[in-house]
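Example (one chain per record):
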Amino acid sequence: MFIHRRDVQIQWGDCDPANIVYYPRYFEMFDDSTSILFEAAGVSKQDIIRRYGLVGIPMVDTRARFLIPSTHGDWIRIESRIESWRRSSFDVRHDVYKGAELAIEAFETRVLVGRDPDNPDKLKSAAVPPEIVARFEQA
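Predicted structure:
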């Protein structure tokens, strides 16, 4: 299983008045981490749009379990991986570590979408190209 790891330093603007990370900032970090995960596997979001004629990979479900808070100046490690692939969707898991301790478990479900051929004003799910899954298996 391909796991991408990246270190992130918590910035002043990530924190609330109590000097702990305001939780929506983590979801921005997770969104970035998913993009970086795809790029590390050799498939950027731009590749998905251009090569496969898709609109993107929007998130349709997300959740997180917060175990340890982080504050301004802390370094965290985000470990991201694809947990499972389905016809048009996939699950991403992000484990956040503060030092050696698990600080957050986060989960996303995303769907590949393109324009509906019957109505270009609407979006429609699209099958995950086998080449994309293969990139993650080879990485």
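Caption: The chain is about 25% helix and 40% strand.
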